[in-house]
Design a protein that fits this description.
This protein is α+β, with helices and mostly antiparallel strands and 886 residues long. The chain is built from 21 helices and 29 strands. Helix 2 runs antiparallel to helix 4 and helix 9 packs across helix 14. The longest helix is centred in the N-terminal third of the chain and has 36 residues.
């Protein structure tokens, strides 16, 4: 191979490999089409700037440009060789980039679960526009990097100017055009694209001509200006007598001054970025709102992302530039420990990089929003809330954290490489690899928990800082340096994966008993108590002697978003519901049918202020005694249990049963008639609960139909079931008044065993003792051949059944559909727990509650409650107390 060609290949290879990796992987990181088509061309532009500046910039960084020009070779041949190889590298990267983007779009449109397939024509149009824009950016970056590196002869300065100059030209063009013309261009994007492509071609031709002239007329003489240095600022100069050496700064101040001088180019260019950002605000203010799909809209609203380049560049400059200047060895000879030198180098750059890259753009955009030029990215409504913190707060924190992370990657790359551009290429490659790994883990790993992220937050920065310090302290070259860093990063990754898996799977449970022991039996299956639970958290145990023991399950760690660290820790560590009272008997005894309704949710009025105030209280406690009298709680007061004081209502002794219904209660009389009681005039209006607590004590009873042959009731989540004396079963639905609908497929149901899941599936125990389940079908199918089932309950995603021998068995519930139907009936049930003294079963939204013969209550948490938890559900059930007060 020709020596000149070989030298150029070695010159372009490191940066070319990093840029190739970035352009190939980046389209596969995002799931949203807007991100792929908006930010991938920008990343393509930045990557090509690195490569083109590298062609001549590394010659100046390594000090080989003068020796290259003194070789007995014509400048025309040198120019032709460098440009040809640069074009080949750019062509290879461009081909890989276009192929990767095309495959990404093709794969996403064909995927059955992708939202892209529903608007494939729009996606293809956006893809073609993004590729045309990438081609224009290719010309701008390729030619701009040549003339800036030849003129400025500093890689950092050349990178900033190549990046900022086209953006500034676009803003100046927008500010000079009349409003009417800008509106027309925004509405007719093909005209805007044509104008921008024409400007890109003209800029590229002028830049290439200027680079050609600068190279062929390059001279290394004193009067030509030499190397332009922005590091010699006038305010750093201190006057003094010539030839007199005197100490002006203390050691710490001198080191700090040196670091500021080292980052002076970045600080100056950050000032230029600030000026351009203010120009973006001017464009928004002058021309108002742009079309949401237009390129002007995307550019003006997404310009703040460019600030994230600043911390990466400052990190890459920290050590690599000193190596390029050849001052590292001399600095190590100073009478200051390397630890202090590294601290002075690291901390100021970290603070400046995070401030400029994360805080400044957020501050500018928030201030601009208050002044009337709102950025769509910075509207709180654009970021939906999640279970931990408000989405807008999370977005702001993520930007600052991203800026800090880019600096951390940059300073590690700076200690590994010999020049600024090599460090920047390594930073980009490392960042893309981390994004690709995170995207792969999100799409392919079944471990849905924030635990790896929480462990990685201290581990990854700590590892990068430790490796950066070792690279700085133990200055060495070659394979040993890379081996130490590769092993350090791999070790951190293995530690994160291993520790996350161990904690998530509760490895310590191997040494714990499978389930706590139960006490002596006090209930029997011959005369079992009735265990009832509701989605709202009501839990009651109806004793055989007529007493009713009540409790309430606290779902504060499962519902909604949270405003305190205590609630956040509840979601992360123990999201299953726990007992929150009253844990006592309803007043009186001899009850035959009792229903309670508890309410617990965020106050919609105060939640607007993010106070996260919760409304808690009991709407009603209603029951029927053996003598046929109907009783109701005396008062309904906010946050006070009302079952301790009951009064008789609706004189008479002909009441048989009461069941909770979605808009009130349904009552059955001994004469076989059905009646219903609705809430007060405010219904279930959450906005008026504070001042108008709902009750139906003063509402009239209304009869349902005219039939007098009703025999039995069963309340459900959003309705109920009723059975006539002839054995026919009817469903109670409708709104705002109950409506009866014949259900022939439920005639064989033991009515009180009927259960529904959160997905609309249902199960019941038939009169012959068989277990029947409906998964994606209108009629229930038998599960197995056993006829000894006593009860069955469904949570959101699993089913638990109780056998007559006192054992518990569970099945996982799939989604609806024919394939899921067949899948469910082929799975074998799993034994739940080790005991065989269970006497009661109930279901809440996300857990199954069981009652043991000794009176102890246990909650078996479902997997949906642990969707965001740090660990999977424990193998041991959670104790909810004992109805005997033990």
């Amino acid at each position: 191979m020709n020596a000149l060609v070989k030298k150029e290949v070695r010159l372009l290879l490191p940066g070319g490999c990093a840029v190739l990796l970035m352009e190939t992987l980046l389209p596969w990181v995002y799931q949203d089409a807007d991100y792929v088509f908006s930010y991938t061309p920008v990343a393509f532009f930045l990557g090509l700037i690195i490569l083109t500046v590298d062609a001549f910039g590394r010659e100046f960084s390594l000090g080989t440009f003068q020796s290259l020009m003194s070789q007995p070779i014509e400048r025309q041949k040198i120019w032709r060789t460098k440009i040809t190889l640069l074009m080949l590298a750019v062509g290879l990267i461009t081909l890989a980039y276009f192929a990767s983007c095309g495959l990404r779009v093709h794969q996403a449109i064909l995927a059955s679960d992708s939202p892209w397939r529903f608007n494939s024509s729009v996606i293809r149009s956006d893809f073609h526009n993004a590729m045309l824009a990438s081609a224009a950016l290719l010309l701008v970056a390729l030619t701009g990097g040549l003339w800036t590196s030849l003129l400025l002869r500093q890689t950092a300065s050349a990178f900033w100017v190549t990046f900022l100059l086209p953006v500034t030209m676009m803003l100046l063009l927008a500010l000079c055009l009349p409003n009417r013309l800008v509106d027309q261009l925004d509405k007719h994007e093909h005209l805007l694209f044509g104008l921008l492509y024409l400007l890109a071609v003209l800029y590229s031709l002028g830049s290439f001509w200027l680079a050609y002239r600068l190279f062929h007329r390059a001279q290394d003489v004193g009067w030509s200006g030499g190397v332009i240095s922005f590091s010699r600022w006038r305010y750093f100069e201190r006057g003094g007598p010539a030839g007199v050496s005197r100490r002006v700064y203390r050691p710490w101040a001198a080191l700090l001054k040196k670091e500021l001088q080292l980052h002076s180019v970045s600080l100056l260019c950050a000032g230029g970025l600030l000026a351009v950002h203010l120009g973006v605000f001017s464009v928004r203010a002058l021309y108002g709102r742009f079309h949401p799909e237009s390129m002007v809209y995307l550019f003006t609203n997404g310009f703040w992302v460019f600030w994230l380049v600043v911390p990466a560049i400052m990190g890459c400059t920290a050590v690599a530039e000193e190596r390029k200047l050849g001052v590292v060895d001399g600095q190590f000879c100073l009478p200051v420990s390397r630890r202090r030198q590294f601290a002075v180098k690291f901390l100021p750059a970290l603070i400046l990089g995070t401030f400029l890259g994360g805080v400044v753009p957020l501050f500018l955009e928030i201030v601009a929003g208050h002044l009337g030029t709102t950025n769509e990215f910075f509207k709180p409504d654009a970021h939906s809330s999640n279970r931990f913190v408000a989405g807008y707060d999370l977005f702001l924190a993520s930007v600052v954290a991203l800026a800090m992370g880019l600096f951390w990657l940059g300073i590690l790359a700076s200690t590994l490489t010999k020049s600024f551009l090599q460090a920047l290429s390594s930073t980009i490659a490392g960042g893309v690899l981390l994004l690709a790994l995170a995207s792969w883990a999100r799409n392919n790993c079944t471990l849905v928990t924030p635990l790896p992220v929480l462990i990685a937050l201290p581990v990854i920065p700590g590892t990068l800082l430790w490796l950066s310090w070792l690279n700085y302290d133990r200055f060495q070259e070659g394979w040993r340096l890379w081996r130490r860093n590769v092993l350090g990063i791999a070790g951190a990754a293995v530690f994160i994966a291993a520790s996350s898996a161990a904690i998530y799977h509760r490895a310590w449970e191997v040494f714990e008993p499978a389930e706590p022991a139960h006490g002596p039996a006090r209930f029997t299956l011959a005369d079992p108590p009735k265990l009832n639970a509701r989605v709202s958290g009501d839990l009651s145990v109806h004793w055989p002697d007529g007493r009713v023991w009540c409790d309430t399950l606290d779902y504060s760690a499962f519902w909604g978003s949270f405003g305190s660290w205590r609630q956040l820790l509840g979601v992360l560590l123990r999201p299953e519901p726990g007992s929150s009272g009253p844990r006592q008997f309803i007043a009186g005894s001899n009850w035959v049918s009792v229903t309670t309704e508890h309410i617990d949710y965020l106050n919609p009025e105060r939640n607007k202020e993010r106070t996260h105030e919760r409304i808690r209280g009991y709407l009603v406690t209603l029951g029927v005694k053996r003598d046929g009298t109907l009783w109701i709680s005396r008062a309904t007061k906010l946050a006070i249990w009302n079952g301790a004081d009951m009064v008789q209502v609706e004189n008479g002794t002909n009441w048989r049963q009461a069941a909770r219904w979605q808009n009130g209660v349904v009552l059955l009389k001994t004469d076989g008639t059905l009646w219903w009681w609705s809430w007060g005039t405010n219904g279930y209006d959450s906005h008026s609960l504070q001042t108008n607590w709902p009750t139906f004590r003063h509402q009239p009873l209304r009869q349902i139909g005219t039939n007098t042959d009703w025999q039995e009731l069963a309340g459900l989540w959003a309705g109920g079931l009723a059975r006539k004396t002839d054995g026919s079963t009817w469903s109670l639905g409708g709104w705002p008044s109950p409506e009866l609908k014949r259900q022939t497929n439920l005639d064989q149901t033991v009515l009180q065993t009927f259960s529904q899941s959160g997905r609309g599936q249902w199960a019941f125990v038939a009169n012959d003792g068989t277990l029947r389940v409906s998964i994606g079908s209108a009629t229930g199918a038998p599960v197995g051949l056993d006829t000894n089932w006593l009860a069955v309950k469904m949570s959101y995603n699993w089913l638990v059944a109780l056998r007559r021998d006192g054992t518990l068995w569970k099945w996982n519930l799939p989604g609806n559909g024919a394939s899921e139907f067949s899948w469910f009936f082929t799975q074998k049930p799993a034994r739940l727990g080790i005991h065989h003294d269970w006497v009661g079963l109930a279901a809440t939204w996300n857990s199954i509650v069981t009652l043991a013969a000794d009176g102890s209550l246990w909650s078996w948490p479902g997997t949906d409650a642990y969707e965001f938890a740090l660990m999977k559900p424990p193998k041991q059930p959670q104790s909810l107390g004992n109805v005997f007060g033990e």
